[in-house]
Design brief:
Layout: H1 46-55, H2 58-62, H3 81-99, H4 103-112, H5 121-131, H6 140-151, H7 165-173, H8 197-221, H9 233-245, H10 251-280, H11 286-292, H12 301-319, H13 322-344, H14 351-354, H15 357-360, H16 362-371, H17 375-386
Helix pairs in contact: 1-4, 3-4, 3-8, 3-10, 4-7, 4-8, 5-13, 6-7, 8-10, 8-12, 9-10, 13-16, 13-17
């Protein structure tokens, strides 16, 4: 081969190469494969392909108009479910790089972790769970799996995105104080795999992202004031750091720096604590990491206490704010009304959903359809079907 010729396509990517990965990080050859065999890509690894399949699916794009906490696009700067997802991916990759974990796996899991979230945030999830009580319930982690394994259908020979088993396992195991891992209904074909450190890291990146962002959005909305946050140990540390670094700055700039520092303090703690855990637990392989479970990647005890304090503050002052509760009631009304209307007249469902009723059951089909809606489409559908 002459020096100026490109290598053969099959050699552009080495799936067995670990590069800078730590010995306890998941490599490409440990992905568990796919439910449906596919030829390897000449220059993209399997986790890169998983990431891209999630990034380009319609469910991902719809996250832009789904509520995180504040109604999307009511204010130009409030987080949406999509911007939250991107923040989780960015935080996860940074933490993963610092710890020698597989960034591509982390990014794929982070981008897919909220695909199953319905419109109107956790109020929408609660409403669907109530409506589906006699038909298996509803939980957004389980729905995320359903999205990637069944509801997305871009390929002619199989349903779903055909993601690697380890990515699907991480999605099934996703858990934060507000999420329930899908232990009972794990991804098909992934039962033999435990979630690795990369999956647990996404859990913590999710916590870091929403804890800091919800503080930021609540301050911007005027639902809480910086003076109220003085009772929180984590905020005091962040505010003191902002004061020390920018003593002559305007209050708004100190507030902005403090909210960003809240994120940094949590992220730094995860790195320091996880490194110590890896050493103390003797985690020197993927197998050892799996045995360690949640003890591998973690907050320190003190940080866990401080984060919990912030989350309790957010629960009382933000998630249960009168304006938030009013929006939640409205969300439940819209979803209940729309669900009932489709039950009474399935003809209002799109044809492709009507065709699934015999196989999946009417309630599950309705649930799938509503869960995939954006906030604005749900409002529009309610107006059209329930008027």
């Amino acid at each position: 081969m002459s020096a100026d010729r490109s290598p053969e396509p099959s050699r552009l990517y080495d799936p067995a190469g670990r590069g800078s990965l730590a010995p306890y990080a998941v490599s490409e050859v440990q992905s568990g494969g796919r439910a449906f065999d596919e030829a390897e890509h000449p220059y993209r690894g399997c986790f890169q392909r998983d990431r891209d399949r999630i990034l380009h699916c319609s469910s991902f794009r719809r996250l832009d108009f789904k509520t995180q906490v504040f109604v999307p696009h009511e204010h130009d700067h409030f987080r949406t479910r999509l911007t939250h997802t991107l923040e989780v991916a960015q935080i996860g990759r940074d933490l993963g790089r610092a710890l020698g974990l597989n960034e591509d796996l982390i990014e794929a899991v982070a981008l897919g972790h909220d695909l199953g979230h319905p419109p109107f945030g956790h109020a929408g999830e609660a409403a669907l769970d109530e409506l589906m009580a006699a038909a298996g319930g509803f939980e957004h982690n389980r729905q995320s799996l359903r999205v990637v394994e069944y509801l997305e259908h871009p390929y002619p020979h199989f349903r779903g995105l055909n993601l690697t088993r380890v990515v699907r396992k991480c999605l099934a195991k996703h858990t934060t104080p507000w999420d329930t891992p899908v232990f009972q209904q794990l991804a098909e074909g992934a039962e033999g795999l435990e979630a690795p450190l990369e999956g647990r890291l996404v859990d913590l990146a999710d916590e870091i992202a929403y804890t800091s962002a919800d503080l930021d959005d609540a301050l911007a909305a005027g639902w809480v004031g910086a003076d109220q946050l003085g009772e929180l140990a984590l905020w005091r540390r962040a505010w003191d750091a902002a004061e020390a670094e920018f003593p002559d700055a305007r209050a708004i700039h100190k507030r902005i720096r403090a909210t960003k520092t809240v994120l940094s303090i949590m992220a730094d703690d995860v790195i320091v604590t996880t490194r110590a855990n890896i050493e103390q637990l003797g985690i020197d392989s993927v197998e050892a990491a799996l045995r360690a479970g949640w003890r591998g990647v973690a907050f320190s005890r003190q940080m866990l206490k401080d984060v919990h304090e912030v989350q309790q503050f957010l629960l009382v002052n933000v998630y249960q704010h009168p304006d938030a509760l009013a929006k939640d009631r409205e969300a439940r009304r819209l979803i209940r009304g729309l669900f009932s209307a489709y039950e009474g007249a399935p003809k209002h469902l799109p044809k492709r959903y009507q065709q699934r009723i015999e196989a999946d059951g009417l309630q599950r089909v309705i649930c799938d359809y509503i869960a995939g809606m954006t906030d604005r489409f749900c409002r529009q559908a309610h107006t059209e079907v329930c008027s």
